[in-house]
Amino acid sequence: MSSLVVSVLLCLVSAVCYAAAAIVQERVAATGGGAYGPLRRPSWWGAVALTGVGAGLHVVALAYGPLSLVQPMGALTIVFALPMAAVFVRRPVGAVGWRGALLATGGLAGLLTLTGPPRTESLDAAQRPLLAAAVLGVVAALTVLAHWTRGPVVRGVVLACAAGVAFGMASVFTKAVAEDWTARQTGSLVPTVVTIGLLASAGMLLSQASYRGAGLAAPLATVTVVNPAVAAAVGIAVLGEGFRYGVTGGLLALVAGALAAAGVVVLTLQGAGRGEEGGVREEAMELAGLPAVPDSPETLPAPSRLPGARTHAHCLAGSRSCAKSG
C-alpha cells in the first residue's frame, strides 16, 4: 500500500472523528449550562477524545502525505457530519442544508485542487515565531469581535472563523514538526509543539463556543472552509506554492472561493432561521409553564399555539377568569 493511499485512508477516518465530535459539541452547547457547563458533561469529554483521535490521525496523515492533499480532505468533515446528525440525533438536513454543504465543499475542493505542487513544505525556524504571533493576534481579534457581535448565528460564524484559523495554522506547524522529526532537526521542536498545543486548545474551545445558539451547520461549514484556506494561504505566501495554469488558474480559484463562501452564507442563513424558530418555541414553553427541552421538536409546541400557551401561562399565574378564553 502506497504512502498516498495510507494518507487518504487516515484522512477519511479523521474526518469521521471530527464530524462525530462536532455533533456532540453542538448537542452539549444546546443544553446550556453557562461557559463552564460543558466541563461537567461526560459527553463533552467524549467529544474532546474524538477530536484528539482525529487530530492524531491527521498528524500521521501529514507525515505520509503532502499538506496540499491532507488539508482539502478535511472538507469531508461537513459531508460526513450532516448525514451522521440526521441518523444519530434525528436532525433533518433538508435541501437547503445539502445545497450549502455541497457548495462549500465543492468550492473548497476546487480551490485547493488548483493549488500547484509545493516547492518546499518546510518552515524556516526564524519564520515560526512571526507566524505564531500573527495567527494568535488574528484569533484574539476575532474573539473580541465575536464578543461585540449581536445574533447567535453571526457570533458563532465569527468564532468558527477564529477556530478555523487556529486549526489551520496548527496543521501547518504540525507538518513542520513531522519534517523536523524526520530530518532529526530538533532545535525548534519544543517551541513548535508548544505552539501547536496552544492553537489546538484555542481552536477546540472556540469551536465549542461557536455552536452555542448557532446550530451545527453554519459553524462547522465555516471551520471546514477557513481551516484549509488558511493552510493554503500560508503555502502560497510562505512556502512558495501557487495556482496551476497561471492567470487562468488564479481566476478559477477566485470562482471556487466564491462558491465556498456562498455555501457558508446559505448555511448561515439556514442556521439563523432555525435559531429564530427555536427562540419562539422556547418562549412558548416558558409561557406555558413547561420546562424547555432544547432541540426536541417532538416535545415543543407549534407556533400556532402561542396564543393558547400565553393564556395558559396567565391562568397558572392565578387568573381564573381567563380559563374560559383558552
Present the secondary structure layout:
Layout: H1 3-30, H2 42-64, H3 67-73, H4 76-88, H5 94-113, H6 127-147, H7 152-183, H8 189-210, H9 217-237, H10 246-287, H11 306-316
Helix pairs in contact: 1-2, 1-4, 2-7, 3-5, 3-9, 4-5, 4-9, 5-9, 5-10, 6-7, 6-8, 7-8, 7-9, 7-10, 9-10, 10-11
Query: How would you classify the helix and strand content by structural class?
Result: mainly alpha
Return the average pLDDT rounded to an integer. 75
Unreliable stretches covering 5 or more consecutive residues: 276-326
The portion of residues forming beta strands comes to under 5%
Overall geometric form: globular
Number of strands: 0
Q: Give the C-alpha Rg.
A: 22 Å
What's the end-to-end separation, in Å? Answer: 71 Å
- Quaternary form: single chain
- Provide a count of the helices: 11
Largest sheet, in brief, is: none
Proportion in helices: over 70%
SSE series: HHHHHHHHHHH
